[in-house]
Specification:
The complex is a heterodimer. By secondary structure, chain A is of the alpha+beta class. Chain A has a single domain, classed as Molybdopterin biosynthesis MoaE subunit (Aldehyde Oxidoreductase, domain 3), CATH 3.90.1170.40. Chain A has 3 helices and 10 strands, in the order βαββββαβββαββ. Chain A is elongated. Chain B has one domain: Ubiquitin-like (UB roll) (Roll). Chain B has 3 helices and 5 strands; from the N terminus they run βαβααβββ. The chains are: A alpha+beta, B alpha+beta.
C-alpha cells in the first residue's frame, strides 16, 4: 500500500480511479453505495476536432473551493466520505480530467451527491479550459 | 501596491498574467476595476467574477488594503 493521498487534489499527473475508490472504501465499512464521475477530454467540440486541452487555475482559491465543495457534499447528502481530483496542464484527447467519488450507506445519496459535486465544481472552482484545434487555440465558453 | 492576477481568457486578452497597481487610501474593488477596464476593455468584457485574497468578492464596494491580491475572472470552465 502506498501512502494515503489527500481526498481533494489538483495535480498535473494522471490518477488511478481504482486507487481513489479503494481509498474511499477504506474510510468506512458502512458504505453500501459508491458513485463515481470521470470527466474526460473529448476529441471533438463545437464542430471542431480537438487534439488536446489545457487548464489554467487560480490554485490559491481552487483548492480551498474544492475542499469546501467536498465538505458541503458530505454534510448535504449525509455521505460517509467523498474524493475529488482535478488535473491541470496539457491533457490529450481521451485522457482523464476530473474524478469524483462519493460514498454513502445507500446508492441514492451517493449518486445525487456525485452529480451535485460536478455541477457545483463547474460553477465555483476557478479553473479555465483551452482547446487546441487545427484552427488554433481557444478558451472554452462555459455551458449552462 | 495591489497585485492583480489574471488567468485563462482574461490573461490572454490582457497579454499578461499579472499587473501591479499603486494602492490609494479608500480604494474599493470597483475603483480598481474602473481604473483597469478602459486600459483592457476586451479582457474586462469577459470578467464576471472577482476574488480578493483568494475569496469570492461579490460586493464591488469591498474596501481594498495595501498589499492585497485581486483576481478578475471570466466564467469558469473546469471539469
Amino acid at each position: 500500500m502506498g501512502e494515503m493521498k489527500d481526498a481533494v487534489r489538483i495535480q498535473l499527473e494522471d490518477f488511478s480511479q481504482d486507487e481513489e475508490v479503494r481509498a474511499l472504501q477504506a474510510t468506512s465499512k458502512r458504505m453500501g453505495g459508491i458513485a463515481t464521475f470521470l470527466g474526460c477530454a473529448r476529441d471533438f467540440s463545437e464542430g471542431r476536432e480537438v487534439s488536446e486541452i489545457s487548464f489554467d487555475a487560480y490554485e490559491r482559491m481552487a483548492l480551498p473551493e474544492m475542499q469546501k465543495l467536498r465538505a458541503e457534499a458530505i454534510e448535504r447528502f449525509a455521505l460517509l466520505d467523498a474524493r475529488l481530483v482535478h488535473r491541470l496542464g496539457v491533457i490529450r484527447a481521451g485522457e482523464a480530467i476530473v474524478f469524483i467519488a462519493t460514498g454513502a450507506e445507500h446508492r441514492a445519496p451517493a449518486l445525487d451527491a456525485c452529480r451535485w459535486m460536478i455541477d457545483e465544481l463547474k460553477k465555483r472552482v476557478p479553473i479555465w479550459k483551452k482547446e487546441t484545434t487545427p484552427q488554433g487555440e481557444s478558451w472554452v465558453t462555459p455551458h449552462p | 501596491m495591489i497585485t492583480i492576477l489574471l488567468f485563462g481568457p482574461v490573461a490572454e486578452r490582457v497579454g499578461k498574467s499579472r499587473l501591479d497597481v499603486e494602492f490609494e487610501d479608500g480604494m474599493c474593488l470597483q475603483d480598481l476595476r474602473a481604473q483597469l477596464e478602459p486600459l483592457y476593455p476586451e479582457a474586462f468584457a469577459l470578467v464576471s467574477l472577482a476574488a480578493v485574497n483568494g475569496t469570492h468578492a461579490r460586493d464591488m464596494s469591498l474596501a481594498l488594503a495595501d498589499g492585497c491580491e485581486v483576481v478578475f475572472m471570466s466564467k469558469f470552465s473546469g471539469g
